[in-house]
C-alpha cells in the first residue's frame, strides 16, 4: 500500500504543477521556487510531516519535499546554534541532495552526448 500511496500522491502533485504551468503564464523557474517555498511553509506549520508519513517518496521526492528538508534543517540548526542556525541550517540540510544532483548530472553527461538547445 505504501507504493500505491507514493505513486498516486506524487502523480497528483505533478499533475497539479502541470496544470499550473499550462493555465498560467508563470515561468518554470518561478513555479519551482513556488513549490520549494510551499514545502518550506507547510513544513514550518507542521502539516508536511504527517503528509510525508502517509505518502512516503511521493511527497519527499518532488520539490515540495526539498522545501520541507530545508525547513527541517533550519529548525534543527536554530535549536543547536541559535540565530546563526537560521543561515546555516538550510545549507547543511540541502547539501547532500545538491551534491548528488551535480555528480549524477555530470556522470550522465559523460555517458550520453549532451547538446545545446537551438
Task: Give a quick rundown of the structure.
By secondary structure, the protein is an all-alpha fold.
Walk me through what this model shows.
- The protein has 118 residues and is mostly helical.
- The protein has one domain.
- The protein is 83% helix and 0% strand.
- The protein has six helices and no strands.
- The longest helix has 27 residues.
- It is globular and about 50 Å long.
Task: List its salient traits.
118 residues; mainly alpha; globular
Radius of gyration: 16 Å
The largest pleated sheet is described as: none
Pairing-aware structural class of the strands and helices?
mainly alpha
Shape: globular
Number of domains: 1
Report the strand count.
0
Question: On the 0-100 scale, what is the average pLDDT?
Answer: 88
- Uncertain stretches of 5 or more adjacent residues: none
Distance between the termini: 44 Å
In terms of DSSP E residues, the strand content is under 5%
Write the H/E string, N to C: HHHHHH
What is the count of DSSP helices, taking H or I runs of 4+ residues?
A: 6
How helix-rich are the residues, as a percent range? over 70%
Can you lay out the helices and strands and say which pair or pack?
Elements: H1 2-23, H2 28-45, H3 48-55, H4 57-60, H5 63-81, H6 85-111
Amino acid at each position: 500500500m505504501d507504493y500505491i500511496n507514493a505513486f498516486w500522491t506524487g502523480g497528483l502533485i505533478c499533475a497539479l504543477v502541470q496544470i499550473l504551468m499550462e493555465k498560467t503564464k508563470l515561468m518554470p523557474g518561478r513555479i519551482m521556487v513556488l513549490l520549494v517555498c510551499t514545502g518550506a511553509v507547510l513544513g514550518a506549520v507542521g502539516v508536511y510531516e504527517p503528509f510525508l508519513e502517509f505518502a512516503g517518496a511521493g511527497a519527499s521526492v518532488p520539490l515540495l519535499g526539498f522545501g520541507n528538508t530545508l525547513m527541517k534543517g533550519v529548525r534543527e540548526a536554530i535549536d543547536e546554534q541559535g540565530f546563526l542556525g537560521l543561515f546555516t541550517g538550510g545549507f547543511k540540510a540541502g547539501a547532500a541532495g545538491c551534491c548528488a544532483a551535480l555528480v549524477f548530472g555530470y556522470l550522465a553527461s559523460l555517458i550520453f552526448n549532451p547538446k545545446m538547445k537551438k
